[in-house]
Design goal:
three-stranded antiparallel β-sheet, seven-stranded mixed β-sheet, 16 helices, globular
């Protein structure tokens, strides 16, 4: 395929909610990931591409700037723009060649061990969480209107009865559009199961794919909710390191050479708890390993919508087409934990198995609230809420980082996170975080170390999203006083 014909694959849909430059960015990323634009290939010039696509030159300049920020391309002065040579030269399977798998459920009984979360009996305690959205900035009036309108509409009275274990049909239809526009994931309604938050989605995916003692790989440290699920199932859990580029894929490859791995769990954006994103080269390498060794990747869409410095990298599932990936997400992590609406996105056969398990737990979710969420997506209210929240959270991130730089330069090491709702704070080795917790609690500040605390790293998450500027100053003042 010639270079011009590659660029001819770019289809701009101006009626879509996704900005034109991001439509072009996402298409070019897929061309790179597919192997049609290979490492080292010279990209078309800005003026030529603008002419070909009938867009302004400034739009293409913005496209190339975004691709460079995401490390897909490299600009060389007086030579041109090239696909990054650091990317692996890899062509994944076609989306339509999805293989069938035989999967069975485990009968392992759950260990009664549960996570230990430090709490205080005082209802007035100051809570420094590990990264939760601020329920005070939610447009609860918009949610109430949508909910009220659903209740008033006569044609929706059936929602008070048993409906559909897959979840509300309208919400699933709107999610198809939303995930396609914002994440580039090819899917339809049959690929989506509505769940009660991402935790249920992760559980269902793991339960289907893993039997007792089969191997799952997670990061060290890892999201506590996932490790709880794996303990319940009785999986054989192996861990790999996390560095500035995310999961160390070379370590995964070494494990796969010696073991039959069934599942890899990855937070490709804003890794929990360290906040780093999986780099483009590692994303492609991980997909290649999945194809070679036959494991599934469960991709947790953690805080994808809260990326501040540039557009977020497309998920692994956007390229893989749900062949080797299962995608989980939730409005609970973006709007508020009390809104228990998440989703599992997978191949149709996986979804069918998930529905059977879900029906054992609960015949359905909350059809009225699910329909209301579908209405909010259709009306663009969810996008507006997310844009507003993103702007507020970015300001709060910057303010907390300013305080850390000013007051804690000797005690805490951190990097400004590109996105998410928390800072990964590494404390000086001479500081005992458990003692800090106790001293802070005595001053009515509950620094929620567990489950965000990583003892081997002497680090924890400091959530900024749920705190105003004045609250941050107060909380950080107490923290400073107990470190002295």
């Amino acid at each position: 395929m010639g270079q011009n014909s590659i660029y001819n694959t770019i289809k701009i849909e101006r009626e879509r909610g996704t900005p034109v430059y991001l439509q072009i960015v996402n298409t070019l990323i897929k061309e790179i990931q597919s192997g049609r634009l290979r490492p080292g290939t010279k990209m078309m010039g800005i003026k030529s591409l603008a002419t070909l696509l009938n867009v302004n030159k400034n739009t293409i300049e913005k496209v190339y700037t975004e691709l460079e920020l995401q490390q897909w391309i490299k600009r060389i002065p007086r030579k041109g723009t090239f696909v990054s040579e650091k990317l692996p030269d890899f062509k994944p399977k076609n989306w339509n060649n999805q293989r069938e798998r035989t999967v069975k459920r485990s009968s392992k009984n759950y260990s009664e061990n549960s996570i230990s979360v430090f709490t205080t009996k005082s209802k007035k305690a100051l809570i420094f969480d590990g990264g939760l959205p601020d329920h005070r900035i939610i447009d609860n009036q918009a949610i109430a209107r949508a909910h009220r309108n659903v209740l008033k509409a006569d044609r929706y009275t059936t929602l008070f009865s048993y409906t559909n274990a897959y979840g509300d049909t309208m919400l699933r239809k709107e999610l198809v559009k939303h995930l396609n526009d914002t994440r580039g994931i090819p899917c339809d309604e049959e690929n989506i199961l509505i769940t009660r938050g991402s935790q249920m989605a992760i559980f269902l995916g793991m339960r289907i794919l893993l039997k007792n003692n089969e191997i799952a790989i997670v990061s060290n440290p890892c999201y506590f909710g996932t490790t709880n699920v794996l303990e319940y199932i009785g999986a054989n859990v192996l861990t790999v390191s996390v560095d500035e580029e995310g999961l160390v894929v070379d370590e995964i490859e070494d494990i796969c050479k010696k073991n039959k791995v069934k599942v890899i769990y990855v937070t490709s954006h804003h890794h929990h708890p360290t906040t780093v994103s999986l780099s483009p080269s590692r994303r492609m390498s991980l997909l290649k390993l999945a194809e070679i060794h036959g494991f599934y990747i469960i991709e947790d869409d953690y805080n994808y919508d809260f990326h501040y410095d540039n557009a977020p990298l497309l998920p692994l599932s956007s390229l893989d087409g749900l062949t080797n990936t299962i995608y989980t997400g939730s409005f609970s992590k973006t709007i508020g934990p009390g809104l228990r609406i998440g989703y599992l996105l997978a191949d149709k056969k996986i979804i069918e198995k998930a529905v059977k398990i879900r029906e054992v737990i609960d015949f359905q979710g909350n059809p009225i609230m699910e329909r209301a969420m579908g209405v909010l997506l259709q009306q663009g209210e969810i996008d507006r809420m997310l844009r507003r929240s993103r702007n507020i959270y970015m300001q709060r991130r910057d303010y907390l980082c300013e305080i850390l730089n000013t007051l804690f330069s000797e005690e805490i090491d951190f990097k400004i996170p590109e996105g998410g709702l928390a800072v990964w704070a590494k404390f000086n080795e001479s500081i005992n975080l458990m003692e800090v917790y106790e001293r802070a609690l005595a001053k009515n500040l509950n620094i929620v170390l567990t489950p965000y605390y990583a003892p081997s790293h002497n680090a924890t998450r400091l959530g900024f999203a749920s705190l105003t500027f004045s609250e941050m100053e107060k909380y950080m003042g107490v923290l400073k006083s107990v470190l002295i």
